[in-house]
């Protein structure tokens, strides 16, 4: 749904130099010049200087006669030879060297030449001679093959007829078998104006070429397809009225020509096998025009037709036209129509597409005026962002404008909601840049008239506005259509030179209700003019008004784009050199200044952009631009290089990329650097700004409020998506405005998780729950919201967004669902508990721990006290709904847990349970004592704590059953609560509990439980197992142990403590309870508790032990530590030397000649290190059972440290690790200096 818009027009004229008429035009790629052929010569036209250079006259050189009988029939630029190949009708093939300006005849055909055509790769050249033969030659002009032009054979691709599907075997309806008989088909001869000259066209890859000739037998034109070896491949089927134009599509699938039919004039397409394959009709009556030529552009997307009026009744007025056609969804659109008029100077003499830029068209006029048109694709759409904007897209199709209002319906092209009919072909469409009237549109046709169409709230019928295929009978929705307000004529000053260019107005922009901005080019097109066009009413009441040119401003350079922002009332111009200008037109005196960035520096696009838009990024007005090569710029900063299309909607920037994704980024609080980083970095999971789309998708329109994004695929069909970023932004706006109804319906339609209503701003939602319930006003919708609740914060999991202003949950304990259910239940109870009964039940069921008993109780209350209000819910309906929420078996169990047998029966009746199964069970329960009955029910429901409570009230006769339940379900702590302290029941339960703790190795707690119930023997065993000697002595005192028994018990516990290296505690037991202070002193010395040993020695006045035991023990300990620290010091010194070697080696590796030897040296070096490390480990081992330092772990620690030390190839890391050894060095000095030897 794109239009082909004129970007700029260039041109020059050399009419004063030559008196002859131009005949051909050929573009020289990369030189900025074109080759021009006239009656008697060839020249090179320099477009920058507008001067003709390297011209040569073939008459003067003797290749053409002076009587004018000969002419040039072909020219080809040979860039690699810096020459041009020229062919004349006399049969000469000439090379013209641009450097030497010499002509060289490389060959002559005696019969003369009609056509010379080079292959696209310039490897082959085809000559058609006057004897109707084809000569194929190499680029060195060596013959490859020669054959006759008119051959009777079909070609190598002749169809093989097997008889399947023959016409004779088909059903022919009422015509019968006569329809199967072959009917004579006559082919009409060529048209009278046909020059009977052959036409040649190559396929884009140069593998095949097509030749259109007049058959000598039928005198009608026929197309033959040949390959590079000059072998005939196929011949076209007989086609009456086939004309001279011929062009093979570069992509290779179609050959275009024209056909004059009895009732219309068509462009027809042939396949490579010669069969017809589609056509479209030209907007002319039969016999009105002839097609001189048709040409495909470089990428096969645009077809240009050169047409000319047929002379009738001797009328001298013959108009020439250039039409630009494109195709989409198998429909051909006439996008541009250039009427060059009937003036002799303005008639078209030659045209060609550029060989480098696919949308550049070169035209040469009869009066030696050269024009160059640059086109680009654009989507003409309304840009409003309010609900009144219909998201209209206008598509030009000849004298019609196909209009689709996506707000009302999505209609795929070529269909439309309605179309506007005009008298002349349409060239431009502009929408009013006003938020309130963004649907109004203006149409500029080929006659330079502007038609204004406006929308009105009232239904206005206009005869020029016709419903499209999507608005006729069978469609319920009738689109709102505009009406034609008036047609305005633009009056230009009469000037023949300006009249050469039929497209005088470019970049038409409707900025105000009565004001347009437009661009035109001053001849010779080196400057542009900005026009202010104002609508004025005609005074004499004519239907056609006049558009006044209020003011004009000249710009040095060519304006190639104009964009306008209604918010800032600023227009931005882009010049051909990339310069950006700011145009302030609304001031009393219009001003034109360079566009500057936030720092005040002028900016320009590094590359020309075909689409420009003004937007506000991070508070700064910037220009967004997209080039033909998918490079996206904001001001002069390149943001991305893979963008295929973009659009701005409110504060969002939407882009489609070559990676087939659609990005939606906020421009409000995002800087240019952040935008660049976002587009260059991969997307994160659940990123709402990213949406995958189909390959080649482009943005067509954005529907406001509904935030539908319309995309068009390469083949032309449309796809509607709801981009999550746009959807969530709209929902956030509604929620911030407390428009819960709109947000809820939109979220339900698009399947957005309804938790977002709360999680977006929990405090606001909880404070306005009553508003939410009253706006929704539907029990089913409220139930849907409640059933979707979950504990997760969806603003952090499913819909994370940096722009989201969601608050942290107000429920600190994390029970979000419970809190919402409680608040909503309270509000619904307050508003109308009868109407919202089902929603209240949902609140009870949806809690983290479902309150099914309370819900069942509410249902039971409904049966007992049925309300008489109209909107009340019956018991049956409530129970049925509850069974929908909860499994019937689970609900039956919970009803049984209420101990209400009527409620149980009511639920059981709704289930599929057999009454023979549950009625006997219920009857049995009814006969039991109340507490035992409830115990039985709770045990059946596995609610053992409640069962234990009820069983404890059943009396001592059920105590054995009580103990069994405690042991089976491990309910010891609960059982102790139900037994009085001091009773036998309490003691029995405590003993069971202590034994259970012993089995689970919780000996300390078991000992306390045994001690509490008075079983001190079991308590001693438990405390002995966990080495709690204090509690053991306490229990021994309770049992009144004798001193000998306590001494024996103390020695036993001391042995256990020594095994755990608790020498001090073991010595305490031996000294105080075993009365063996000598053994206690020995244990203290073994444990290196020197001060405690001194205390005991002096306490018992055993000073002899100082010499016999204390001194030797201290000296032995010193010796062990000194040996260990000496080994550490030796290791440090050795590794310090190694560190020096590593640092020297690092310096050597910086030299280029040692790069290859470095790995070998490193391998030898670390091999030596490993050997040294092993020896060090063996010499550093030390073990002593009485040492407080675990010497057995030292070698392992040393091995680990040294391995890490030498596995590091970074000497700085090695240096850092060696600092640890310095601590041992200092410790050695300190320790050896302070201890006596």
Draw up the topology in text.
Layout: E1 3-13, E2 22-28, E3 33-38, E4 41-46, E5 51-57, E6 72-78, E7 83-88, E8 92-97, E9 102-108, E10 113-118, E11 124-129, E12 133-138, E13 143-148, E14 199-202, E15 208-214, E16 221-227, E17 232-235, E18 242-248, E19 255-260, E20 265-270, E21 276-281, E22 289-296, E23 302-309, E24 320-328, E25 331-341, E26 348-353, E27 360-365, E28 369-378, E29 380-381, E30 392-397, E31 400-405, E32 418-421, E33 426-431, E34 441-445, E35 449-454, E36 465-467, E37 483-490, E38 506-512, E39 515-522, E40 527-536, E41 544-556, E42 559-565, E43 570-575, E44 580-584, E45 591-594, E46 611-617, E47 620-626, E48 632-634, E49 637-640, E50 643-649, E51 652-657, E52 661-666, H1 672-680, E53 690-692, E54 698-703, E55 708-712, E56 718-721, H2 724-736, H3 740-750, H4 756-759, H5 762-767, H6 769-776, H7 779-787, H8 816-831, H9 837-846, H10 852-864, H11 875-885, H12 888-896, H13 901-910, H14 915-926, H15 930-940, H16 944-952, H17 959-969, H18 972-977, H19 984-999, H20 1003-1013, H21 1016-1025, H22 1029-1038, H23 1043-1059, H24 1063-1072, ...
Parallel strand pairs: 37-41
Antiparallel strand pairs: 1-28, 2-3, 3-4, 4-5, 6-7, 7-8, 8-9, 10-11, 11-12, 12-13, 14-15, 15-16, 16-17, 18-19, 19-20, 20-21, 22-23, 23-24, 24-25, 26-27, 27-28, 29-30, 30-31, 31-32, 32-36, 33-34, 34-35, 35-37, 38-39, 39-40, 40-41, 42-43, 43-44, 44-45, 46-47, 47-48, 48-49, 50-51, 51-52, 52-53, ...
Family: Belongs to the ELP1/IKA1 family.
Domain ELP1 three-helical bundle: 1104-1193
Main location: cytoplasm
